[in-house]
Amino acid sequence: MPRQTRLPPPGYVARRLGQSALVLWAAFTLAFAILYILPSDPVSIMLNQAEQSLADAAQVAALRAEYNLDQPLVVQYGIALWRALHLDLGRSIQTGQPVAALLAQAIPATATLAAAALALALVGGIGLALAGSLAQAGWLRAALLAAPALGVSLPTFWIGLLLLQALSFHFFLFPAMGNEGWQSLVLPALTLAVPTSAAIAQVLGRSLAAAWGQPFAEAIRAKGVSRPRLLLTHVLPNAAVPLLTMAGIITGNLLAGSVVTETVFSREGVGRLAQGAVAVKDIPVVQGVVLLAAASFVLVNLLVDLLYPLLDPRILQQRQAG
Amino acid sequence: MADPLTLAAIAAPRRPLPWLALASAALLALVLGWGLAPWLFTATDPLRGVPLQALQPPSAAHWFGTDHLGRDILARTIHGSATSLQATGLAVLVALLGGAPIGLLAGFFGGRLDAVLMRAVDVLMAIPSLLLSMAIVTVLGFGTVEIAVAVGLSAVAAFARLARGEALRWRHAVFVEAGLAAGVGIPATILRHVLPHAAGPVLALAALEFGSAVLAVSSLSFLGFGAPPPQPEWGLLIAEGRNYLAVAWWYTTLPGLVVLLVVLAANQLARHAQDRGQDRGGPR
Predict the structure, then answer these.
(1) Which of A24, A260, B85, B164 could disulfide-pair with B107, CB 3.0 to 4.6 Å?
(2) pLDDT, tens digit, for every residue of B234-264?
(3) How far is CA B264 from CA A108, B148, B261, B268, in A?
């Protein structure tokens, strides 16, 4: 079977780019709708929370003017969208700093955490699924196949607290909080990796089971190839494709998980920023984090969709036919 | 006239006794009992602290130990289940009632309505549900009901998507087409002929969502957006124990274990329901 890699056609790329932009625009609109249209008055929410309930009328009017809340909704929306297109997401109510700068400041710490957690989760999740797929003994197989279900049922904050308790306060192996050095990364990454690896193991386990049953697996097995070798060279590559569809969801979950993880371990980052912003109702910052999440989801999905045809030529053929 | 469902049940091979599902149901029933009648399970006041007995490890008198004010943690967990379960139930209800009608209409009518509704669902799916519910909580305000509604709204998309798939599947079944041709009205067709078939998988998703909602509600209240402090609530209970990790392992560990077991049991039951639903097959 000659294996040729073909680049996706330009039309496909353009269409996917357009779709991505559309989803981003819609996510912006949704965030705007939730945060600025649903409540009767964002200014009073923000002022109440900022403990400035004694704010005088002039202050309220100034705030209103700053956020263009004295304009009709359509104009507000237009201004906000125009600014967002220029990466201007407004200013934080609490600190007055530009939201884009706050996000840019927080992203590296969270990206490091998410990357470390993803690496751990890939190793753990794929390992678990492969072991479950190979295990012969009934009880071992049952335990390995049940582990992911346990993993997705664990409250993330609880895993973090247990790890803190055991490894920081009992054995003093790792620092309990902060961003200093690699030691401070271990426990948060581990915490964040548990639910992610469980999700990976669940999906991969299912597609491995499906791939084992396909005719090609039996044919190769009949030729005398050992089970582990068959698994690694033929079954896994076939079963790994559905894992890629999850990439966007995994990215989103890592970002959402960072809210809880960073709070538990008192780490700086996007999650902590989001938690703090919701606590004081700093609407522009909340909106910024939501947009960041949507943008990373869209971007990862776009990348996956563009890579897909390179990895599995069948997909492009199906899409063109369909 | 034989009901095709019972025929399928007879034809299906006998399953081993689903002891895992039974155990899960028993556990959920117990926790539901805690929520409905906490006084049957504990005589201790969850709000009354005995300062002399602060931070006692688990013992015969205090199975889960005591907290920093000398309150019984088991009593607080039992009394907290009412708040946590109500919030979870409300969240699932909001998701179900918000999502299922959207999906049913989109799947039944198809065309432009379907396209618009499903693009909206795609957008909702692009935002992680925890962040979406945090954004909604920012607007609604803090409190148990508020986080329940937020968690429910952030799960609407999943229900809409599933219900749409089910509606699409049954929309062109022979009996639906025949009914429409015979002059049965569209609302009656949806309610009487499509909904009953779509209900099974949608309710199975609701069961699955129950587990995720327990997690989401407790996460949000752990983050400090839920019920205010003296009230016992699972997420809050665990958050309060955060400051005593070094000296009182039981404070966060045991209530967290209860949350884990409830989520596990709900997921187990949901999977059981889904497996049974699959045996029934598609349109005939």
Answers:
(1) B164
(2) 888 888 888 887 778 888 888 889 999 999 8
(3) 34, 20, 5, 6
Quote the DSSP letter at residue B55. Answer: T
Q: A8 or B176, which is more confident?
A: B176
Residue A86, amino acid: H
Residues A26-71 pLDDT 10s: 888 888 888 776 555 666 666 665 555 555 677 777 777 777 777 7
What gap in Å lies between CA A136 and CA B243, rounded to an integer? 45
Mark yes or no for CB contact B245/A150 under 8 Å: no
Residue whose token pair is 């989401």: B216
* Per-residue pLDDT tens over the stretch B81-102: 888 899 999 999 999 999 999 9
Q: Min CA distance, A293 vs chain B (Å)?
A: 6
**Cα angle, residue B126 at apex, residues B123 and B132 outer, rounded to 5°:** 95
Q: What is the pLDDT of residues A64-105, one digit of tens each?
A: 777 777 777 788 888 888 888 888 888 887 787 889 999 999
**Positive/negative CA dihedral, B42, B44, B47, B52:** negative
Residue B49 has pLDDT above 80, yes or no: no
> Does residue B126 sit in helix, strand or coil?
helix
- Phi and psi, residue B111, nearest 5°: 60, -140
Q: Are A256 and B129 an interchain contact pair (Cβ–Cβ within 8 Å)?
A: yes
Hey, what CATH class is A100-279 in? mainly alpha
Band of the pLDDT at A322, cuts 50, 70, 90?
Answer: very low
Interface mutation target, options B24, B119, B122, B123, chain A, most CBs of A under 10 Å: B123
Domain ranges of chain A: 10-85, 100-279
Please classify residue B205 by burial: count the beta carbons closer than 10 Å to its beta carbon, then call 0-12 exposed, 13-18 middle and 19+ buried: buried
Cα separation, B241 vs A144, in Å, equals 32
Report d(CA B267, CA B213) in Å as an integer. Answer: 11
Whole-number Å distance between alpha carbons of B71 and B40: 18
What distance in Å separates the CA atoms of residue B225 and residue A278, rounded to the nearest whole number? 8
**Amino acid letter at B180?**
L
Q: What residues in A contact B246, CB-CB < 8 Å?
A: 165, 169
pTM score of the predicted model: 0.85
Residue A154 tokens, joined: 């664990």
How far is Cα B237 from Cα A211, in angstroms, rounded to an integer? 45
In Å, how far is A128's CA from the nearest CA of chain B?
A: 19
User: What domains appear along chain B, each with residue ranges and CATH number?
Assistant: 19-36+65-279 (1.10.3720.10)
